[in-house]
Write the structure tokens for this entry.
Amino acid sequence: MEKIDNWKLSIKDAVRNLDDLLEILEIEKTDLWINPTKNNFPILVPKSFISRMKKGDPEDPLLLQVLPSSEENTISPNLSDDPLNECSLSSKGIIKKYSSRDLLITTQACPIHCRYCFRKNYPYQENHFIDHQSQEMINDLQSRKEIKEIILSGGDPLSLSNEKISSLINKLEKIEHLLTIRIHTRYPIIIPERVDDELIKVLKLTRLNIIIVTHCNHANEIDKKVHNKLLSLKESGLTLLNQSVLLKNINDSIGSLKDLSYTLFNAGVLPYYLHQMDAINGSARFMVDEKKAINLIEQLKSQVSGYLVPKLVKEIPGELSKTSLA
């Protein structure tokens, strides 16, 4: 019988139903929450992540990120299914929206479904990387000398097997002018056992600079196991950065932002970006006023060292980089 990796078992065993989620956390069900259908961004929460939530607390900052609300069905003229206009920039798995780097959509699979996800309506079936088209992609990149970096995104690129990640890196490193691969992932935070020895070996055995950008929004997401796995990546010589999304009632306080920066840095991760949330349909409850966001960063600057202050940014469609707000 074929051996199944522990991280894949965690996905297989993840909670996919509202009643099951609330039962584990001993929280009484209310009409405020919904159970999305399979075709409407369903619930997906690994049990290891649930174990970091406080039982009996419907306001737990980790729970609020994954708990579907009836407000998700509300349509607002200020929100969109494609807030960054990525569909118009996508072709055969590559999103071309930056001047010196391309973004590669590797997969639609994720280890968790965050309710504020800006790509929850992205047409993955028409726009994702397909291995048999890889030579066409390589030829295109070979001809564009200005491209120095490839961003692996999704979904979550660490949903791919180690073999597929290795194969992709081997193809990319043959592009002479390419210097860096940046991997945006939630796996080390959500399912830390995904960071196994084989993956670390794959990431170390390339001439390219490898940058791991984790996505962590709250200090409570980093327990001892996550802390140790992040340190193992750091100690292997990889560069670790973190990006967070500023989320109402989750991390929109000076105390939560300070705790997050200190906890990340102690695990070998440098705070990188704090994003103003993209205006995706159904996510209005998470939005933080821009003036409050700027004030929070100014407070953070006055209370911690500069290297612990992430850049407060907003992505504006059509711009060639993130827009700094403070």
